[in-house]
Amino acid sequence: MIRPNQIHWFKYPHDLVWPIIFSVVAVFWWCNVYFLLSRNPTFDAYLNETIYENYEERIERLSYIGPLYFIVGEHGDIQIQWKSCLGMINVYCIAITTLVTIMCLGYSVYKKMQSVNDMVAEKTRALQKQLFHALVLQTIVPIIFMYSPTTVLFICPIIGVELGVIANITSICLALYPALDPLVVMYFIRDYRTYLMKKLNLTRSVSTTTRNTSITKHDTDII
Fold it and tell me: Where are the transmembrane segments (predicted)?
């Protein structure tokens, strides 16, 4: 624990501040999506042809959210869509804040573990190392499967790159992330990993091999 004097923030009634913060962020996200990134006639007209070419579906039958940064007028003039731009600024403010918070807290945990490394028991030190490795991987997984694909998806329209059906990879990555996140914990925490391997009967072959090896060695010694 880095600051034990701050533990009261996780006890009643001070712990109520956390669900309040989460609720405020959730309401802010809803307002951002509903008022700034929701569908509109201009966006429908822009997407209608592309959606029909790739999926043979009419835009009127679909629900979607997203940014339309600019449109090109009849005379080649660029008309910036400020609502969408503001909406995406809000999205990336939230994303960058969460990522920076995770990295700062992870670095603080690492420094604290290094400072008390010689003051804890070997078993406690091993558990802390497992938890830290799981934390690092749980930071890398969303960067690969959530932040990176969505960043590419939202930046490509700005530079004039049309992804087409390739953009569906983003949806696949976002669907994989919640499944991969707990797998990281189950793999790096030894007790979880051992229990899971026992349930899947993956330790029997190892025990048999060990037993055969010891018997062979014993026979050799006798000879």
Answer: 16-37, 89-110, 131-160, 166-189
Per the CB < 8 A criterion, the answer to whether 151 and 166 are in contact is no
Gap between the Cα atoms of 169 and 189, Å rounded: 30
DSSP 8-class letter at 72: E
Q: Please classify residue 145 by burial: count the beta carbons closer than 10 Å to its beta carbon, then call 0-12 exposed, 13-18 middle and 19+ buried.
A: buried
DSSP labels, 94-125? HHHHHHHHHHHHHHHHHHHHHHTGGGS-HHHH
Helices (H) then strands (E): counts for the chain: 8, 2
Structure confidence by residue, pLDDT tens digits, 19-66: 999 999 999 999 999 999 998 888 898 888 888 888 888 888 888 888
Q: Which residues partner with 173 through β-bridges? A: none
Question: How far is the C-alpha of 145 from the C-alpha of 139, rounded, in Å?
Answer: 11
